[in-house]
Amino acid sequence: MRRLGHNPVIRERFEKPRPLGSGLMLQPTGQAVLDDLGLLPKIHALGAPIERLYGTDSRTGRVVLDVRYEKLRSFGRGLGLHRGALFGVLHDAVLAAGIPVRNGNEVIDLTAVAKGKRRLRFMNGEYSEDFDLIVDCLGSASSLKVHSLAPGRSRPLDYGALWATLPWCGQGFEASALMQRYQAARVMIGVLPVGREGPGTPDRAAFFWSLKPSDYEMLQRNGIDAWKQSVLVNWPETRPYLEAIKDLEALTLARYAHHTMPMPVGEGLVFVGDSAHSTSPQLGQGANMALLDARALFVALRDATDLADGLGHYARLRRRHIRLYQALSAMLTPFYQSDSPIPPMIRDFLVPYIARIPPAPQVLAAVVAGSLVSPMRKLGLS
Ligand SMILES: Cc1cc2nc3c(=O)[nH]c(=O)nc-3n(C[C@H](O)[C@H](O)[C@H](O)COP(=O)(O)OP(=O)(O)OC[C@H]3O[C@@H](n4cnc5c(N)ncnc54)[C@H](O)[C@@H]3O)c2cc1C
């Protein structure tokens, strides 16, 4: 917005902006957006390059996930990233651009005022100044979704995850791989190297344990030792990670919901990121999609004759890619998180055999890299 000559103001609910959420995978698509903003060298200096996603079944030892970025030749690699690193680099850039960030402003609604302008309403009863355009980046729980021309419906997913950010322990783990361990699709454990939060800080890993939110109470009742035992039975090498987890409060429960907004715009309003489309993070795309949305909004407004034209163009620029990835995520998640024995049986048959026959390795790498039906050229990215 600042690059287009507008005067954006950021409204944030926290009194002090801070990173929230687990470490993540930044795909080549998201990296390209950051590169265009001149931020990629800083991000690369903090992240952990990821060459492959690799998972085995704990009972059979069979490889049930093996996706290698090298199959894409020049498209790039993944990057494991501490959420604080992504937050810090973006936040510093916002401050350096002189964009005001108004904190402690919890948005609960918006209201139309004269001359097509919009005004935000906050939890404390106050209102914002008037804006020509509100960009909703409030995430999946946004209260502004109802103002979309077509909001769609959110569907909670059965499985979520417990996660923690822990000191990186290399023994038994690849420094450049997201490693996972499964038992059918009921158990899924993941370790992702995420580099460091800031220059000179120690290397960390994101640790995941797949869990149904409805089972969380039972897990708490059984206690941390019982939980650790069930992790160790499946993956003994995780012991150093488990030792760093002193109590269950050190783990955060993430709930997932699937939602695709059919039309991510309203009157003087546009939805970006999880407020427009959220899903399980199985494919590691959410933050990348949010970055692609932001880039698409820039391109659409830059080339538009007026605001309505620009918002329509934004929706069209993102439609195909978003729909494809939301559909892929809905289709593939049960192969890795579900109670049904059928999807993991199919997975266990397909991955060791068919997934090695070209072009399957290339297609799988493109799915993970976010470049299946590549959104890049339309967005002026390389
Ligand atoms: C466990 C887990 C693992 C994940 N792993 C990956 C991964 O590997 N790769 C990947 O790309 N994605 C991953 N994701 C998804 C990714 O985190 C999201 O897609 C991404 O954070 C969406 O960004 P966003 O800016 O749209 O929303 P958010 O990150 O949710 O940001 C919303 C912002 O709005 C603020 N806010 C919220 N409500 C209000 C309000 N009412 N008023 C004012 N401010 C408000 C929040 O404080 C925050 O600053 C993962 C998600 C989870 C839960």
UniProtKB/TrEMBL annotation:
<dbReference type="InterPro" id="IPR050493">
    <property type="entry name" value="FAD-dep_Monooxygenase_BioMet"/>
</dbReference>
<protein>
    <submittedName>
        <fullName>Glutamate synthase</fullName>
    </submittedName>
</protein>
<keyword id="KW-0503">Monooxygenase</keyword>
<dbReference type="Pfam" id="PF01494">
    <property type="entry name" value="FAD_binding_3"/>
</dbReference>
<keyword id="KW-0560">Oxidoreductase</keyword>
<feature type="domain" description="FAD-binding">
    <location>
        <begin position="268"/>
        <end position="304"/>
    </location>
</feature>
<dbReference type="InterPro" id="IPR002938">
    <property type="entry name" value="FAD-bd"/>
</dbReference>
<dbReference type="InterPro" id="IPR036188">
    <property type="entry name" value="FAD/NAD-bd_sf"/>
</dbReference>
